[in-house]
Design goal:
Blueprint: E1 15-18, E2 25-33, E3 40-47, E4 57-64, H1 68-81, E5 96-102, E6 105-113, E7 119-126, E8 129-136, E9 144-148
Parallel strand pairs: 5-9
Antiparallel strand pairs: 1-9, 2-3, 3-4, 4-8, 5-6, 6-7, 7-8
Length: about 160
């Protein structure tokens, strides 16, 4: 992490967050940087301060292009997308296009919705940053994402106390 609370920089990487209008808790849920490969990622949570997945929330995962963690994050998010007990298909299910405002511009994302509940998963790319979003009870097209360079304003439940 650098002095601004942001993991080291990979060429072209930017962390993204839901814009400042989000009314609930804003938390850093994880980050990583591999000095050997230059891969970097940041995972942010927007929702209940107690990380309650049954209330309106959004997780924004930003990763440097080609980062294996982005593939794993998408797979984990899609696992949650299915009802417990449902068998996941062998490949990715069919997605639909959705537009999400990113840095003030409409950007295309792939969207997977679960017709049985209000859970969804979206994937997109902004320059050299891969984004995986998942949420509950909020319409993804209503989101507005912005680049963040300072994560110190986000609560970190895994940080040192006091």
């Amino acid at each position: 992490m650098n002095d601004q609370g942001t993991p080291g920089s990979a060429e072209g990487f930017s962390a993204f967050a839901v814009d400042a209008n989000w009314p609930e808790s804003r938390q850093v849920m994880g980050h990583g940087y591999d000095g050997a490969t230059g891969e970097i990622y940041v995972r942010l949570w927007f929702g209940s301060q107690y990380y309650d997945p049954q209330v309106e929330h959004v997780t924004v995962f930003s990763a440097s292009a080609g980062n294996a963690e982005a593939v794993e994050t998408l797979e984990r998010a899609l696992d949650m997308y299915y009802h417990p007990g449902d068998e996941n298909p062998a490949g990715l299910p069919a997605s639909e296009p959705v537009t999400i405002t990113t840095d003030g511009k409409p950007m295309p994302f792939e969207l997977w919705r679960n017709s049985n509940n209000r859970y969804w998963v979206a994937r997109g790319c902004v320059e050299r940053t891969e984004l995986v979003l998942n949420g509950y009870e909020i319409e993804p097209s209503e989101l507005s994402l912005v680049r963040v360079s300072d994560l110190t304003s986000f609560w970190n439940p895994f940080g040192p106390l006091g």
